[in-house]
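For reproducibility, we list the full input for the 2-acetamido-2-deoxy-beta-D-glucopyranose complex.
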Amino acid sequence: AKVSSALCTRKCLLVIGCLLLLLCGGWLLGTMFWLHGPSSQQPHRPPPPVPGRAANSTAQTPVNDSAAASRREACGRTPEAWRFDCYPERTVVVTRELCEARNCCFIPAAAPPASKKRHQNGIPWCFYPADFPSYSLASLDKTLLGQKGSLVKEVKTYYPGDILTVEVETRYETDSRLHVRITDPSSSRFEVPIPVPAATKKAENPDYAVEFSKQPFGLIVTRRSTGTVILNTTVAPLFYADQFLQFSTSLPSPFIYGLGEHRSTFLHDVQWNTLTMWARDVPPMTNLYGVHPFYLSMEEGGTAHGFFLLNSNAMDVALQPAPALTWRTIGGILDFYVFVGPDPGSVIQQYLEVIGNPAMPIYWALGYHLCRWGYNTSNSTWEVVKSLRNSGIPQDAQWNDIDYMEHFMDFTFDSAKFGTLPDMVQDLHAHGQRYVMILDPGISSTQPEGSYWPFDEGLKRGVFIKDAEGKTLIGKVWPGLTAYPDFSDEVTHEWWYDNLRRFHDKVPFDGLWIDMNEPSNFLDGSTNGCPENSIEHPPYTPGVLGDLLRAKTVCATAQQKLSLHYNVHSLYGLMEAQASRIVAKRPFVISRSTFPSQGMYSGHWLGDNRSQWKDLYTSIAGILTFNLLGIPLVGADICGFSEEPQEELCVRWTQLGAFYPFTRNHNAIDMQPQDPTAFSPLARTAMKQALLLRYSLFPVLYTLFHHAHLHGHTVARPLMFEFPKDVQTYAIDKQFLWGKSLLVTPVVDPGVDQVVGYFPESLWYDFYTVRPDFPGDSVRSKGEKLQLAAPLDKINLHLREGSVIATQTPNLTLWVSSGQPLHLLSALSDDGSAGGDLFWDDGESIDTYESEQYAYILAVSPQKVMTSQVLHNHTEATFIPVASASFYGVKEKPSQVLVNSQDATFNYSDNQVSLGRIESPQNGNTEGKAVRTKCFKG
Ligand SMILES: *[C@@H]1O[C@H](CO)[C@@H](O)[C@H](O)[C@H]1NC(C)=O
Ligand SMILES: *[C@@H]1O[C@H](CO)[C@@H](O)[C@H](O)[C@H]1NC(C)=O
Ligand SMILES: *[C@@H]1O[C@H](CO)[C@@H](O)[C@H](O)[C@H]1NC(C)=O
Ligand SMILES: *[C@@H]1O[C@H](CO)[C@@H](O)[C@H](O)[C@H]1NC(C)=O
Ligand SMILES: *[C@@H]1O[C@H](CO)[C@@H](O)[C@H](O)[C@H]1NC(C)=O
Ligand SMILES: *[C@@H]1O[C@H](CO)[C@@H](O)[C@H](O)[C@H]1NC(C)=O
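The corresponding predicted structure, in tokenized form, follows.
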């Protein structure tokens, strides 16, 4: 489409006056909102090394040896925030004897840690002294891409299998990406098999500098342009033992994000907070379903960097207030990347260049999805679909949980209770709707031979995970005893595909929900237990729930094609997602367990939550974090999974959920229904409005996903990404943006009809200004908290100055609404400029961008003149004409508006111009002709 227009105005006044009311309201609540202020900043530089003799020790024990005495004195000089834990074992009460046996400093803290939470361990009583034996850099040589050095250590540590000589290699891969590998030159160790880019020549102008500390060994990375130290591993000793690899770094600020999957605030707490990573299925406060060893960290002045440890073994990430961070993993190698941004968005782009950009979702993935566990029959599932249709509530996809299956067995459906499932799916398709059902990895192993093809055939092809003795490992999940497919084997992918195809012939499903893929097991290990050895009981076990690697999963010693389960456990969901594709369209897969690069294959939902306000609130942090982790297609169970639904909560959650990139309402068995039609007419209407609003914004959301796919952008975006210099945005996780311009301010508390939101410095237009029922206006913020009206039927939405977005008249499915004409909405800056874009294709073919089967249109209006350009043209775009346009921020009524040089009828009210149907012969419908909209000074 080629659309251009010009707007002219005479005077400008009035806008500012209207806003003062809002500003005053916001000021009152101003101080309550900001929690993680920068005021608590610690000194970010490590303290100087502790000298041998110093101030008096705080240790109480009398000393009778002068060396030990001076040692203890030195220990006492290490500031508490800089004490790196020498005794992280959780099951042990650390005594002086145990600690000193490790040659570490022992200073019991005065008081026990304030919080008894598992992951908050308080100041360590036992910590490394400055002279703790570590590696030293024995040699360093230049290489094609960077340097290669040899690290040697004289003294063994207290963990078995110390590797006394290791190799460190730096690769200056791009100007913003440094790659470092620390490996064992004498034997190969497990490496994560995700494809990463291979650099062939050294970056010429890197914005990072690398230095080494020789003795003890340390790697120091600074940002060239500012001198900021972004990595300094000299702060604590390096460990490289067979099952214990550890290094620490100082952080330039306490503002650190990422490190999934955990249920927490968006900004991590650095007060002695240990985040354990090992795929596990029990929410909420422990190691969760997915593993993402990546963090984003802010620096002074708003620059940002990222760090990615490419390692899949069980690990702890310990944060401490220095601020500093320790990586502690029990296998693999130390293979990591530093990304220097310099802004948060480009850090994520650089991270995704390594792990892979997310897939472009099939269009209906962005519609409303409805699910519950316990519809019990296909007929009652169908009834709900019909009920939504009758109520005019949009729905793109209906789902079923495990109750559709016969005895919970994959690739079956209950022919009695779900006998009409194929008919229901047919009916969904006839209405432009889709069907998605759950699949668990566990395959029932107890059916009579010849009666259950998936198991019989799986055995024949040898696709199942083996125990340490080479026999099929048997665990227990929903169908009873089960075997687990080994998705690290290509043969398993073929068998899985064959199962999908056979089932698809009976029930032509459109997408897959892959659950329980940590993999989850109701037993610990297997029916036969697990061997007792150092794989099952490593010298150090990270803080996994259950204290055993095999807790509620298969044995760590289980054998997979690629490696021991010990190494590949947390890759299970990734590898299952890679196998879960069937139709020749973009696959729709939602996975519970995830690993870096998952976004290329699936989306994610945040797992089991409860129908509680707290869960509504924490879902925002979860959504934002997964957008940082390259899985933008993410959502939480709207209205809460477990516990009884509450109407007010469900309305607010549906409003918030309408802005999750992936929007699904899901409910547990035996709970009251919580689909929109289950509530009062008032609540139902509010939910319907929220969903219709989402559908009307589909062109915006779809275009954002295009940018995620193409450039590694975030879709649901933290405010700090757009305003990185504004420290006030750093902890915000009650609001978020869609892209750069739509600010969502949901209500996250019960019983209120107002909400306080932070508005970074900009001019923001109330999105509803166009709607007579919500008269709103624009607000010019200097970076303020504002109190906004939030009646039950409203979610606050603001459009940032300078943006142009395209909307469509919503309808019951995206199939229908995405064919509707576009309405262009321009939010002008003071100087009358705005810009935006639109990506459009057939919505479902694979690689439309790559094969150039798409249209891409850019709309810009510099200085009161809007022109738009077709940067890439395709037939698809001819199906969506531009029907109307609105311009916010036109301060005076124009005397005339021209569309393609012809007079157009328009409305003017409250600083905006609306053009009704653009009745130009070209009509903007992309037949290669420009539509010009012009107005003249009156
Ligand atoms: C260290 O201890 C000695 C003896 O108890 C005392 O005289 C001295 O003042 C102390 N020094 C400091 C710096 O506290
Ligand atoms: C002095 O050291 C010896 C041996 O190291 C120890 O047995 C003794 O208990 C120590 N005395 C005091 C007062 O700590
Ligand atoms: C790195 O850390 C070491 C040990 O704490 C410290 O001595 C050194 O000054 C730090 N280097 C930089 C550049 O901050
Ligand atoms: C489902 O509905 C169909 C058609 O109305 C009916 O024949 C069938 O008995 C119903 N099944 C169940 C389990 O209620
Ligand atoms: C969907 O479109 C049809 C046909 O244009 C219209 O009658 C109906 O009201 C629309 N539904 C909604 C929910 O807007
Ligand atoms: C865009 O493509 C359509 C159909 O392929 C064609 O009719 C039209 O002229 C093209 N428009 C532009 C601006 O190239």
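The chain has four domains: 2-12+718-936, 66-127, 136-355, 363-373+391-416+431-489+501-528+557-708. The chain is about 20% helix and 25% strand. Both points were considered when choosing residues for closer inspection.
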